[in-house]
Protein 1
Amino acid sequence: MQSTSVTKIAVTCLMLFFGVLMIVPFLWMISTSFKTPAEVFQFPISWIPADFNWEHHIKVWTGPNSFTHYYLNSLKISLISVTGAVLLSSLAAYGFSRIEFKGRNAMFMVYLSMMMVPPQVLFVPKFIMFDWAGIYNTHLALILPGMFTIFGVFMMRQFFLSVPHEISEAAFIDGAGHFRIFFQLILPLAKPALATLAIIDFSWHWNDYENALVFLIDQDLYTVPLGLQNFILENTVDYNGMMAAATAGIIPMILVFLIGQNYIIQGVSSSAVKG
């Protein structure tokens, strides 16, 4: 019993060490964004600036390339993509988990195997397709593909498999169809999984750099990752400004995680019940 307690304490201390190790760069980034240029390379490091300098944050939001425009673009793309991804993934997962049809499991395995295809391989076919469809250099080039996520279908299917079949069978006996069962019975039970998928998918779209770099040309369409890169290229020696811009870019992700961390734990644990 005593050895078990010692082991738990040791594991907790180890996790605490790695947790602190991972959060230190973020703390340094935020601290540096409020420092003066002379304090950036000061050693030993001064974690709390002598005087909080808001100049760099003001420059990020009010400069020639204001982050406000990048934020609005990223919010537009992320929110629309997440809404579509949650709905379409849930519908596909319901079909793979609750509707019996020939070759269902084989089809799902083939669908799942597409996760092994590197996304970079699809850049050229997607470029040709988007150019043909007339959506290249528009936000639709990021929104439409973003509505389809293999991981989302897999995750929601795992959750739906954990829901007792007796619930849907009883609804069938009462005359309910698949759509009524899906929207009125299954989805209300899947709130933790839906919230988890939405949070994870939002983070993917918010941090998506490669697709935005390839399919967006006009600066008016830039998202936060492209805006951050553009800011860094224009301010190569303004380290305080870079840290302020990076802080601005990461704030939404921190807020989303803090708000939805309980849903993430519930959703992941529920989705892992059945394989």
Protein 2
Amino acid sequence: MTTATSRHSERRISPVFAGILAVTAVTGWATWTGFAQQPGVAVFLFVTAAWIVSLCLHEYAHARTALHSGDISVGAKGYLTLNPLKYTHALLSIVLPVIFVIMGGIGLPGGAVFIERGRIQGRWKHSLISAAGPLTNVLFAVVCTAPFWLDALDGVPSDFRFALAFLALLQVTAALLNFLPVPGLDGYGVIEPWLSYGIRRQVEPFAPFGLLFVFALLWLPAVNGVFFDVVDSLLKSLGISDFETYCGQELYRFWQGSNEFCSAAP
């Protein structure tokens, strides 16, 4: 029998997540104040920690929506604690996305939490569960870009502005990739409940390879160019320039040495 105490513990915020949140706050402060002797290291830790926070919130959104839709098993699995170590695919959800940020500056969609779909009735609920994750990235992107489109960055140190711009870039790429209607991604999960049984059976074998297919396409210069043109257009409409995202990524990759072009920025 499940007790009230155990149900409460299933929803208590994990110390692991609290620690990551603390790293985000401390390194954000260090980037803002210039306290760190090596600003690139502070930017790296700030953006990486904030990115992990967004990944945890992405998975939490899936689980929380599933809970309210009828899958009460998500609590016992630890999904409501925001602990990245509790997710079904910690490698896909946390480690690989961070590696892709370091290597290419792309917000890789994470792995999904395991939802017991048989407990959930109604196509709209299934669609909303799939949409909840990338909508969290959209919300995170709005928060990151708000200081830019609200013109609230007067006097803000350039390093912090660049870091925030790069973090916004990651959130926008994650949202766009997640919403693609490709098997294995959340975008397909949104439309899947509305497809016929026959189509779903035909598509199902391709789901494990959907993400690999997308990233194979992104290696093609023409496709990559179109994708980042869309990303840049969205960021520009939100007040973030190519220069700011470029310098943010250059600061993030501190091991490559300082960029005099960005260092001279006001």
